[in-house]
Here is the input.
Amino acid sequence: MALRSRGGWWPALCIGITASILAVYILLVTSNWIYLGWHDTLYFFSKSRMWERFWLTVWTATVSTSFSLFIGIPAGYALSRFRFPCRYLFASIIDLPIVVSPAVVGAFLFGITTRFPFDWISEYYGIYIGRNVYGVLLVQFTVTAAFCARLMKASFDMIPVRFEAVSHSLGASPLRTFFKVVLPMAKNGIIASMIVVWARAAAEWEGLMLFVGATEGKTDIMPFAIYLDWNGGMMGWVTSMSIVCILMAVSAISAMKLIGGRSNVW
Amino acid sequence: MKNFFKSSKGKEFMMKLINNLVVFLFISSFFLVTHTYGGEKRLLFHAGLGQRMALNEIKAVFEKRNPDIKVNFSYKGSGYFIADITRSKQGDLFMPGEEFYLMQAGERGFLTDYDPKTDIPAYFVTVIITPKGNPKNIKRIEDFARPGIKVGLGNPRSCAIGIWHQKTFRKAGIWDKVKENATLSAKCIPELGNATQHRAIDATIVWATTAVLYLRDVEIIPIEHKYRGIIRLPVGVLKFARYREESQKLMDFILSEEGRAIFHKHAYAINPVIPVDKQAFCLDGTTDKDMEYLVNAAKAVKDESFPVTKETIGDLAGQVLRQKKTKRAGD
Here is the structure.
């Protein structure tokens, strides 16, 4: 499919623009890394505080992503395939958390968790949501669930309905069709969406700022810890944690690309 | 072809199985975690971001002495707290970065009993900071009005330092000129420190506790008495406290000699009485010694040969040693 890039100024211009933006990003990372220096890099990377936060980020994002997938896959499928009342209303409401700032989500979560029936539930079970790691998961889930459903809808939309029709005509039940035909075909899309959702969850902090607040070592996932240390004037931590975040993102994306290959989400 | 599909389905099934397993492991680990947390008394402490290092140290000492009490901080910018407390109606202690915010909570009836005379563990003191080497040669408050100086100011709506900038420069009669020189309107005080560190501004006024975080990258210039602001840092127990007794215990510890000494390590002024005028500007040299320690600490971090002793830098040795360890600050 690739066009030949030889001859003509237009391909050269496009490639040139790509190269320059890439150069800007590489410059951003390298200049900050040089600012940090090698000695400090080793010092901060060997601190346990760094890796505690790293694992906290990884596992909270993973858990909230898996919850989002449990909701997102059926929801995306329903929005993509079935006709039901108020379908368009649902579709637009599900877009809301993508458009609205996560800060709003954080503020609204505040309002709901202290009211009936959630206050009773938390009182009864002695689980306090908010200001602990459940709060982090709740914020990440709330922000990403809708996002996940939206991406899943896009993945399912790309699969022609014909395959399902054929499967039905051969006598397979809708459930069987979904698991044996639709899911395998949407695999690449699902994996690609999963990375996007995971990255979104790992990068979330506005909602956390409002709803959870920072308890060091408990709720300060990477982006939040960067903000905290920025406020504490600890430029060494800020730079080294940002570098870890970037490395994390790069490795996650390349790993998933290796597994999932190309898909329609990107 | 059929075999190929079968094997990919098999993989799919395995993937789902692993996914489910992971999720169940996580859920079960939640329950484990909640159960182990059940027996302890966990205090929720709303505290301003600026007090983080001092309070973490206090937490460590306090938890060691009282093993059944755990302190959880909810660090935020001071401006966020009123909304938080009003909506959540949770929290045991409250220590914002300015008495004003505590008064707001008091007006809404959230505080149990707050005595402005005794419940002040520490004070902030204002100092001038400039980038390393002081390239524009700033020495006094009046230098801020010189044309061509890039001044960083705080936004008075979102942070207390903004109000103090206004007050100080108004008193010196140069507010209009300084406003013309302003190139940064900061939402919070660390923004001013970071901007100075990265040479984005030529001079600004911050608390001594903020300046002490940037010893390697800024120059610290004490302000003369009549423009030196003394800001009270209060602490109070909230009405919704789940563990009233334990909260009081922590508050007493913060107000004790020992607690104050920890604040002194982070460049807070802890003299019990600092004479101030009506506008809270300093009247005499009570804080001069602290200012001298701070200036010496900045020298000690930059210059290896500078002696690090109790006489030269007071209680700031912890800060100096921490910042000497790495080129870029961290703990």
